[in-house]
Amino acid sequence: xxxxxxxxxxxxxxxxxxxxxxxxxxxxxxxxxxxxxxxxxxxxxxxxxxxxxxxxxxxxxxxxxxxxxxxxxxxxxxxxxxxxxxxxxxxxxxxxxxxxxxxxxxxx
Length: 108
Fold this sequence. Notes:
Layout: E1 2-5, H1 13-33, E2 37-39, E3 42-44, E4 63-66, H2 84-96
Parallel strand pairs: 1-4
Antiparallel strand pairs: 2-3
């Protein structure tokens, strides 16, 4: 996976790369496993210790390139999270012809 980041001038590029990698893993986890059930009026899982996340063994190799245009400072934050589910959805559509419109993605 390749992520190109335009966050303005990166003060700490290695930290920006780690932030983007983590955001992509979080977004992939939501796209693939992010179902939240409600039982008896309570949310299940109740905490992150029972929330399924992508493991290192299943994670893709992620390359992060920072587009440093030497412009004003910007923010990196979680900019890697929102775009990953649509990208996976488009890849599934390209491979299967099936357009999935809800998370987590399940073929059926």
